[in-house]
Amino acid sequence: MKTLGNVIWLVFGGIVTALEYFVASIPLFITIIGIPFALQTLKLGKLALWPFGSQIRIKPGNPGCLSTLMNILWFFIGGIWICLSHLIFGIIFGITIVGIPFAIQHFKLASLALTPFGREVDWKI
Fold first, then answer.
1. Which residue, 98, 99, 74, is CA-closest to 89?
2. What pTM value is reported for the model?
3. Which candidate, 121, 118, 115, places its Cα nearest to that of 105?
4. 24: helix, coil or strand?
5. CB of 112 within 8 A of CB of 51?
């Protein structure tokens, strides 16, 4: 069932979302300061490719002040807009019964898009 959901997800926009994340990470890799942000963008892109069957969890242990600082920078640089776009798509998909599983995946992506540092994706495939 997860595989079917992921294939349908890819056909109806998942591949476009993932490509946007992957393309956005390329200019971030150019500078040393942008590399941590590029890695988080790649994490979002990978999750956007195959969201069904995965969970987002907070990394065990103390995240530290650097993770908090990076999340604050991420929020102001563009994380809020990424999160809002996933929330809007989640609400749109949630209107119909058929779209509810896809709405849940968009809400999952929105939570990771808001604070990606200090979180990891647990793949249950």
1. 99
2. 0.85
3. 121
4. helix
5. no
Closest CA to 24 of 110, 16, 98: 16
Query: Domains of the chain: which residue ranges?
Result: 2-123
CB–CB of 121/43 below 8 Å?
Answer: yes
pLDDT digits (tens, 9 = 90+) for 27-53: 989 989 899 999 999 999 999 998 998
Instruction: Tell me the per-residue pLDDT of 65-108, one tens digit each, with 9 for 90 and over.
Output: 888 899 999 899 888 998 999 999 999 999 999 999 999 999 99
Closest residue by Cα to residue 50 from 17, 80, 94, 79: 17
Q: Under 8 Å CB-to-CB from 83, ≥6 apart: which residues? A: 110, 111, 113, 114
* Alpha helices (H) in 10-99, listed in sequence order: 15-28, 35-49, 64-74, 80-94
- Which amino acid does the sequence have at 20? E
Structural contact between residues 47 and 54, judged by C-beta atoms closer than 8 angstroms:
yes
